[in-house]
Amino acid sequence: MDPTLGDDGGDLSDADGAGLRAPGIAKPTPPTEALRTLLTRRTIVLSFWIIVLCLGLPHWLWTTSTYRASLPLSTMNDWAEGKACDLRFAYPIRLRTPGWARERIVELGGNLSALLGHDGPGGLLDFTIHPGDSDEEPLPPPRENVALTVVLHAADPPGTHEVTSHLEPGESILHLGSGITEAGQIADQIREITVPQQEALAYVLSGTPFAATEYEALRATRQTWTETSLDARNNRTFKPSTTYHLSFSLFVARNEPSAWAIEDALAAYVAPLVDALSSLSNFTITTQVQLHASFSPSIAGPTFDEASGEWKLRREDLSGFVNAAEWPLSPSIGEGSTINFVLYVPAAEYSPLVVADTGGTVWLVPQWGGVAILNLDGPSTPLKATKATDRTTLSATDLDEVMLTFADQLTSLIGLPSTPSGSLALRIAALQRERATALLLSTASTLGALSRLVHKLPNIPIPDTVATSVATSLRHIDLACQDLRAGRYSKTDSNLGALGNAQAASEASEKAFFEPSMVGQVYFPDEHKVAVYVPLLGPMGVPLVLAGVKESLSLYRSIRQKVKGT
Amino acid sequence: MKLAQLLALPATLISAVLAIPEYSEHLHLRPLPNGYLYAGFNFTASTSLSAYESQHFRYFPRSLGQILQHSDTRELHLRFALGRWDDESWGSRPRDGKREGGTGVEIWSWLDSGGGKPAVEERWSSLVNSLSGLFCASLNFIDGTKTTRPVLSFEPEGTHRGGGNGMELLHGTLPHEVVCTENLTPFLKLLPCKGKAGISSLLDGHKVFDANWQTMSIDVRPICGLGGDCRLEIQQTVDIVLDIKRSMRPRNDPIPRPRPVEELECDESKSYHASDTCYPKRKEGEMAWSLSKIFGTPVRGSCHVADGDESHDISLEVSPDRAVEVSHGGSNDTLASHEQNQLVRTMRLPDSARQHTDISLPQHIFQDSPHQNRPTLYASRQITGCGQERGGMHTVLHNPHTHQQRIVYLESLPWFLRPYMHTLKVLTHPTNSHDRPTIPLKPDQMYYTPALDRKRGTHLELLLTIPAQSTVELTYDFDKAILRYTEYPPDANRGFDVAPAIIRVLPSTHNTHNTSTAGNEIGQDSYFRTTSLLLPLPTPDFSMPYNVIILTSTVIALGFGSIFNLLVRRFVLAEEVPRSAVAVRVAGVLGKVRGVVGSLKGRLRGGGQGRGGGGVAVGVNGVAAEGDGGMNGVSSVVESRKER
């Protein structure tokens, strides 16, 4: 039909093309190429490809690659999987028995050691008994790393304290009455102190790779109420931190009272507690007075109860009582968490204000702080209205009760265990152990997460600072583990102690994980790269590839022909 | 006694250092010509330094106190401003311009200079970042490029241990910042009564930011008494100028709309006055107004929270013959003039927290226009020149007084405005005679820190003496820098804001001139700020980088392609070009399609009548045409090859 159609059938369809072709026009064929030109062309194509592959490609990869410092990934994973550290807690006990013979003490120590050790691998604590010198009097400063000192008063004349035991409030010393001399009795007394500690530690470890099966067995034996109470404690507690900012605020519904004797009250009730807790964290204290504090619009507000003559605050409203939008309770500047204590003085016409069901005026907001309502007597009461300043200033005696409550709330907010109730020193030591463990666990999981992140996202850069932080973290976490096993819990001059090391490890690991330059690069979009490369590589690549394909095909054909020909 | 204390109110800032109550507040009202009202709020709280250092806060706000402690700030001045003060008709500025800021946000503070320059910069950055969070302003954008260290313009207001040694002044501006309600709310939260009682209950964002001129300030400074007991004082002020008529428009119809022609007050003496042409008449009087109508609410209760605070809450500066009515709760009262100063009336709010207080004034026709203090100086600044490459700065300072004045002129310019200091000219001429030749004026002192690209802005400070009744013109040329692609803001074509120039009028040393009507007293310096400027910079087309990439790539690819083809292609005669296998195959398929189409056509023509057939035929024709086109394409390729 169309003359061009059959104009030339090419080499493939020579036969039927010849039929269609107009007679007289013979298709000329190009002259066969000299082998030399063929070779030159092939060399050219090959050299182009060599340059692209050997020079261009590495150069491109090198200029577009992201810097990734090498991280000790396997060590990090070991920590995350709990393989790097076998968590045990040394619990050295010192035995002091004034007036006993040396041999008897050693024998008692041996018995006791056997009895406590009998708890077997199920316990997390490693008890070691150090029989002390009997003649030392008064008690020397406890030698390093003694978790508990037991003093037997067996030699004392039998008196009223026959079988009783008591703890020294400020120190970790257990005094046993004259009636207790048997190793079994002593072991029971010691267990009474250490079992809650074991349970708390097992609770911290539960669900983590560090929890070995034997701890799980211990967990199973535990009563459910212990678990719920530990749950409650855990929910309430602030995250472990090196610094806590305590913020005491007086919120007043109207404009009186506008001052409070907070310095005296703090000195009397909070300062001693904070001093004792200083081995755990640093504390800073700020106070403020805020007038005209109104309720948040989201709560229903108090209702007047005719029967009791009190204003009742519904239980549901307690969570919204603190008017976060208007009350200036911004967190303090600097590292660390802020614990808020709010004292609210209702207006005279809404006074007394109490919580509906319980009639209480104090409650605790988990992981935030404490709230107390202070109902002042009406201005008609002669006691209060003697002087103008009495109306405007809350005296230290007005604050007594509130401050005691706040101190109590503080202990539960930072997670101080409630047992053994006799000794603050023992409770702090217990919290120290728990904290160190919790920090160690969180560090391990952060390191694991970082390792997974690095593995999952191959194109994020890893700056050297991350590698340094990881190295620091690993060093400290290792030290923390050793310190726990050796019983070095507190900070000393030469050593940070388990808690200090765990804190340092945790900080370093967080710093590595939240390195800002890593986060920013994750979202570098691929579309950008396409937009940049396609206009350049497309037009250059197509002739290069086509020439390569064509030449290699012709090479293949000529080789085949040669093979056929021979 | 109390009244006397109040009367010296502007001076109390200094004189009443000893017996300051822990908290006091004050509102000053002054009607301005042409139906404007000036309202100046002042809230002063203080705390003893020992309580501040041990972080026990009462009326001093804790949030601000902690920021100051954390950044070792000795003295802080923070300003949020909007609008322009009309010097010509409103007279001298309130508080001598000391509590006033340039448009946008301005901050200067004295920081502890221990630890050297990096430590100071660290503190400064921590300060502006924290304040940015506290006041919901973009203060965090004050970096090295927007920070200057003025030498002459500012002096510490407080008393500092060591006579001001060991501290360093840093000054930053954000002329682009739009001040609004989100800045006022945290400002009010710092007050003890939080806008719920006392005069602060009048401060409502809708009214404050509807003002013609508005400035909010926060000043923190230590004050030491003679006995050595030091206190830290925070002074918060809000100064606004409201259009009385505009503020009193009814709440149910808040949208400002043009008034009907019948209601317009026209100057009928104009020659062009007609039914459709109106020249607005200059207001001769003042309409009736009251606090509750202007601010939308009366004063709710009072905020007398400090012991020993007996001062007056509100003062009103109106002519003695005007009747002023005050209503407390239900009872009405007339506010009489003050015994000593007939121009001022004062009142103290009742202590009861529940009572509302309102002040109302009837309509008033002036016999003679009220006397306004002449400002110390008039100043204006413009950008001159055209084009996107270079421009010039032109500042006019005009001294209306009969005595010469010494001023400090401070400019902090962004780095992308590059001034040429050799072009700096300061010329002066007497105001009244324009034909006299201008005389060059030599600056007494000059401080100049040149800009570094992307690191530091220009800082220019001049100490000038302006002769009596003359005008000084200050000019210099500058280049506009070209920014990088990422440095442009989203609204790049709007232009870039240049911070206002700050002018400090030094206290006059010539005692003979103190009797003049100048607003500034002996030993008191005053401040002015020019308006901020808008600098248009060359703005690129923002798709440029991709265009450049694509263009460059295309050029490279073209070059590469042709060289590569020259090297590897074989050149033969056009007739010798072998037919490629693909082309043959395509041609075969097309031939088949053509055959099928041809046979279909034949069939349709044979029995094809009616609509349906026609429709199909069109479609078929379309296909055929396409086929043809395709064929033509192939053949043309072949032909072009032949031509080669």
TrEMBL record, chain A:
It holds the Pfam family PIG-S. The keyword Endoplasmic reticulum applies. It is a multi-pass membrane protein. It is found in: Endoplasmic reticulum membrane. The chain crosses the membrane at residues 44-62. Pathway: Glycolipid biosynthesis; glycosylphosphatidylinositol-anchor biosynthesis. GO terms for cellular component: GPI-anchor transamidase complex. Residues 1-28 are annotated as: Disordered. One of its GO terms (biological process) is attachment of GPI anchor to protein. Keywords: Endoplasmic reticulum, Glycoprotein, GPI-anchor biosynthesis, Membrane, Transmembrane, Transmembrane helix. It comes from the Eukaryota. The keyword Disulfide bond does not apply. Its main location: endoplasmic reticulum. Belongs to the PIGS family. This is GPI transamidase component. It comes from Friedmanniomyces endolithicus.
From TrEMBL, chain B:
The keyword Membrane applies. Keywords: Membrane, Signal, Transmembrane, Transmembrane helix. Residues 1-19 form the signal peptide. GO terms for cellular component: GPI-anchor transamidase complex. GO terms for biological process: attachment of GPI anchor to protein. It holds the Pfam family Gpi16. It comes from the Eukaryota. The keyword DNA damage does not apply. This is Subunit of the glycosylphosphatidylinositol transamidase complex-like protein. The gene is GPI16_1.
